[in-house]
Amino acid sequence: MNKTKWAALAAGLLLAASTGAQSRTSVSNVARTSVPVGISARKSKPGQQLESVPLALRQRHRTGSPAVQVTEQQRLDSIWYGATTRISQQADLWYEHGEYLPTIMLLRFETQIFPYDFDSCDTLGWLQESTNDPAGALATYIAFRQKNPGDPDGPYMEAMYYYRKQVYAKVPPLLEPLLKLTPSPHPNVYRELAHSYEKMNLLADAKRVWTAYLALAPQDGSAKTNLDRIDKKLKGQIPMNGPNGGPGGA
User: Fold this and answer.
1) What pLDDT, in 10s, does the model give residues 174-205?
2) E strand or H helix at 226, and its extent?
3) Peptide bond preceding 134 in cis form (omega within 30 of 0)
4) Residue among 99, 124, 93 nearest 111 (CA)
5) d(CA 174, CA 178)
6) What does each C-alpha distance from 172 to 157, 159, 200, 236, 244 come to in angstroms?
7) How far is C-alpha 30 from the chain's CA centre?
8) If you placed Cys at 99, which of 81, 91, 94, 151 could pair as Cys (CB 3.0 to 4.6 Å)?
9) What's the per-residue H, E or C state across 100-148?
């Protein structure tokens, strides 16, 4: 779908959503202060930022000067920029007013326009989980991974979802391949992978991951503490985890 059609759809969506937003009941179980990132601050990845409104159009609007010659592409880009900026602004407004369901609707639309935007998908999934839609959140995370096979962060949201749900066995298949990447993945990949192995009492694997991470960040005190705990478990000095990943000796 081209930019013109996307912009038209965006305008229609905003109009339809605005009509019913005031009558909706806010979802009370969302902790606003814990939203991952500000909605309006989320854009695309480096090198994929939206183009600004063409200079000629801005000058004409500001000064009232005679018509300035612009290309058709510049005109379409200005429409595109206005529509997508308006989506972000409206999502911010609804979120601040507690209108979480319309916010989710706009974020769903935004992730269709920008399927490569990690923060958009992360915020959408967070809101879906916060409004009792875990299935929708998981679908959001899986879609991001599938649509961005070359993104080193692609599997991370899905893996973290499984970790929070204590489905630890699904974490290693998603995060383990990332350890082979160059440059190395984010430190949280090592942390969540090692913790998942430990929760499943796969202590040798947990030690391997912590050791690999400390080779990259030898001054990380928390990682040293975690590795020391794993060593003590391997030596039987402290009990292993229970069957559900918690402390205990089962």
Assistant:
1) 999 999 999 999 999 999 999 999 999 999 99
2) helix 221-234
3) no
4) 124
5) 8
6) 13, 8, 11, 24, 17
7) 17
8) 94
9) HHHHHHHHHHHHHHCCCCHHHHHHHHHHHHHCCCHHHHHHHHHHHHHHC
